[in-house]
Design a protein that fits this description.
The chain has 469 residues and is of the alpha/beta class. It contains 15 helices and 20 strands. The strands form five sheets. Strands 8-7-16-17-18-15-19 form a seven-stranded mixed sheet. It has a five-stranded parallel sheet with strand order 10-2-1-14-20, covered by helices on one side. 45% of the residues are buried.
């Protein structure tokens, strides 16, 4: 060029979805590219943060969605440190570690040291309510041959049944894993829900042996495995929004079309059209599938195959005198049933003792269901379930209901193969990136890590384009 330099065009980036994945991507793009990047976030609803919902009612702090971060996956904690939120993190009350599983009209305590499916304290396990046949079967777990192969996967139920037997699956691991993921352990993929168990089996040959070794390696003064925020999980969303200019984000902006025109991406929404160089799909796979159907039919087909479960959380406040909650208890899980089903409950006043008045007790119930239900029906179902188990009497003082329709991805065996196909199709569409549950993210740390990885990919691509020019 005659002037001896080239004016570089400002990069344009669209992010579809204003949940934790989309907001992390926006924050990281602005942090990485600065004024060289024009970022636009489209959020179809009127609120940001996705499933992260925090409400303050008087002195009662209520979490609608996730209430903690898993510390062993460091991406979210690292993000908090960058945002200046590290001093806001708080661990669970270390005294409240007792876990229960509902059976009939009672709750059975899991023995001390029990983790998901594996005994960790053998004397406590031998004193537990499991049958002697189950105890003998668990003792023999060390003798079960490992299954090898880096790509090996099986259902949660198959793995537990193979290594620990039917009773531990039915009375412990099944309800726990089913409650955590709102799915059927007979179908859920172990690799995409609890991959550490496959890793432990591969490395040590035995789950009980591996967990024993890992406990020995863990420092005695290790911090809580889960951490929340003093003012609730909304602190993370507010921390991100403080770093993102307001004009970047559009709420009530429903994207209706994603097209490729003359080598660029054209985003159509109820607020008009935008042309960008890169587009990040930070929305559920079924939304992504619909938007990309006219561009890549096979990709949409793969994305459509990921099922989602609906969930409702009901947080209820009772006079402490009207509760019969076991001391130092964390909560319970319950076997999943058809229809409207109470699958778990957290004793929030034990997890976070300072979140309501001392003379009151907060319980958060998780309901699995399909189809529409009135808030009053959901609240009544949660109360009835707690009452049937003998945990509460009388009516709650307050009930706060949060509904999450098609919110929990059901990663079944076979998802790994589909993910390979999804990534292959996406690679054929330069400038397109997927994050969140569409690509196997489970929980906030996974979503944060994936969103930041996508921005790194865009940076590398931009670098390659600049070198080529």
């Amino acid at each position: 060029m005659g002037l001896g330099f080239q004016v570089m065009k400002k990069m344009r980036l669209a992010i579809i979805g204003g949940g934790i994945s989309g907001l992390t991507a926006a924050y990281d793009a602005i942090r990485t590219f600065g004024t060289d990047c024009q970022v636009s976030v489209f959020e179809a609803s009127g609120s940001l943060g996705g499933v992260i919902k925090t409400v303050q009612k008087g002195t009662h702090l209520i979490e609608g969605g996730p209430d903690t971060l898993l510390v062993r996956k460091p991406a979210a904690v690292t993000l908090c440190r960058e945002l200046g939120l590290e001093d806001q993190l708080v661990g669970l009350d270390p005294r409240s570690q007792r876990l229960f599983v509902a059976r009939a009209n009672n709750i059975d305590e899991m023995p001390a040291g029990f983790f998901m499916m594996s005994p960790g304290n053998w004397p406590a396990f031998y004193r537990s309510q499991f049958s002697w046949a189950a105890k003998w079967r668990a003792q023999r777990e060390r003798l079960i041959p490992r299954r090898s192969g880096a790509s090996h996967d099986e259902t949660v139920a198959s793995f537990v049944r193979r290594r620990f037997g039917e009773e531990i699956l039915r009375r412990a691991a099944g309800p726990i894993m089913g409650g955590l993921y709102l799915g059927d352990p007979e179908y859920l993929s172990l690799r995409h829900t609890m991959p550490q168990f496959l890793d432990i089996e591969s490395r040590y040959g035995s789950v009980t042996t591996g967990l024993t070794e890992l406990r020995r390696e863990r420092p005695s003064n290790a911090a809580s495995a889960f951490q929340g925020f003093k003012s609730g999980m909304r602190s993370l969303i507010d921390g991100l929004l403080a770093k993102i200019p307001a004009h970047v984000i559009s709420t009530q902006a429903k994207v209706t079309s994603v097209l490729i025109e003359q080598g660029a991406w054209r985003i159509g929404s109820n607020q008009g059209f935008t042309t960008v160089d890169h587009v990040i799909m930070a929305c559920p796979s079924y939304v992504t599938a619909d938007l990309l159907r006219h561009i890549d039919g096979p990709l949409s087909t793969y994305l459509d195959q990921l099922e989602y479960a609906s969930c409702t959380t009901v947080t209820q406040l009772y006079p402490r005198a009207n509760t019969r909650i076991p001391e130092r208890s964390f909560g319970f899980f319950a076997p999943r049933q058809d229809g409207l089903s109470l699958v778990a409950a957290n004793f929030m006043s034990h997890k976070f003792p300072d979140r309501c008045q001392r003379d009151l007790f907060s319980i958060r119930s998780f309901l699995s269901h399909s189809g529409p239900h009135k808030d009053s029906e959901l609240a009544r179902s949660a109360h009835d379930g707690l009452s049937r188990l003998g945990l509460v009497s009388g009516k709650p003082i307050d009930s706060v209901v949060f509904k999450f329709d098609r919110a929990m991805p059901q990663f079944e065996v076979g998802f790994s193969g589909r993910l390979v196909q999804i990534n292959r199709e996406v690679a054929r569409l330069p400038g397109l990136y997927l994050t969140g549950s569409s690509v196997g993210c489970v929980g906030i740390p996974d979503c944060v890590a994936r969103a930041r990885s996508v921005i790194s990919q865009i940076r590398e691509r931009q670098g390659s384009l600049h070198e080529a020019s």
